[in-house]
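Entry type: protein chain
Record version: 2
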Amino acid sequence: MALIIGQYKKIPFEYRLSVIYLIIGALWILFSDKVAANLSENQAMLTVIQTYKGWFYVLATAVSLYFFSKLHLNRFRKAESIARENEKLKTAFIENISHELRTPMNAIVGFTEIAQTEGASQEEIKQYLGIILNSSKQLLSIVNDVMDTSLLESGNSYVNNEQVELGLLMDNVHAYFSPLMKDNVQLKLKTEGSDVAIYTDKEKLTRVFHNLVNNAIKFTHIGRIEFGYQIEKQDIVFFVKDTGVGIRSELQHTIFERFKQAEIELANRTGGTGLGLSICKEILKLLGGKMWLESESGKGASFYFSMPIEKISA
């Protein structure tokens, strides 16, 4: 049955409409003539019945075609509207990622050329190499975002479960981001107090934290960023909170959509591909978790995600 329905949907709309119209017309002619013949044998009366029968068929098919066509056109217009919006967001994404790619590439090429010039001291060359290394890492991050999006969208990203010490994972995230913090922003780690080992994909869980903390750093200019986890019944709830610019309420229901953040990044020029949050959401789907946001404009943002993970030890 499902196969028949699938084959039916592959037939173009205009062909389906024509076939349905012909079938209904043929059935109407066959059965209505028999009914009319049973109602009366008077030729004059049969002529009147046939006339009204014809007008009824025209009226019924006209009304049916109107509502059927309207339903189809509404779906078509909705799909067209979504396609236009996606095209707009993809354009914003391409414009944004072009800017993000050029910035580290210009730094890599420029400082490599400077380092090769005669007269540069060892201290200057060391400084240039540091800039080249940081730009290369930034470029690698952009490539990783695009690759992750492609893998998640195509369904070729898989979960590799292993035993993960949450305390060690959190310490590694803290150690990674501590040197990157702004002068007026503190990075705090908050956990349950006792170490917990869980079964999950360590690389993907780390990626989610990296994306969220990196986002918090970009949008927080003073105050603190706090991340960690807490145990609630059978779930572990992770969080990343900041005291940054916050997210306007009208953007909160679309902020996790692919390419949507690229439009915001393009307007603010804060850096990044604009794919981080959509990647986090897709990763958590793979891990069997869910993600949500609490934020007010100008009052920071709190990202939470939970997973029903079985504890191994405490």
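Comment: The mean pLDDT is 79.
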